[in-house]
Design brief:
The protein has about 80 residues and is an all-alpha fold. The protein has one domain. Helices cover about 30% and strands about 0% of the residues. The chain is built from three helices and no strands. The longest helix is centred in the first third of the chain and has 13 residues. The protein is elongated and about 50 Å long.
């Protein structure tokens, strides 16, 4: 039995080690479709990430570490 996923199970399977780039672009597309090249719009229009799909690099750190407020009430600038 093969452990590789088909493109029906994981639409990112064909991108190999670059899956994270596509996932990162998808997150940008969700936030602002104009920030992604229009050539990707059809792909992302019906794209649904597979459970356990690649996540953008650093996303885990960003999500787990909220910005600390400064004494003046402003959030700390990102590193």
């Amino acid at each position: 039995m093969s452990t590789q996923q088909t493109s029906q199970e994981n639409p990112l399977a064909g991108f190999g080690p670059n899956e994270w780039i596509v996932e990162e672009m998808y997150q940008r597309y969700l936030a602002d479709p104009a920030s992604v090249d229009p050539a990707w719009h059809d792909f992302f229009a019906d794209y649904r990430p597979a459970p356990g799909a690649a996540t953008p690099r650093g996303a885990e750190k960003t999500a787990a570490t909220p910005a600390k407020p400064q004494p003046d009430g402003q959030p700390e600038p990102a590193a």
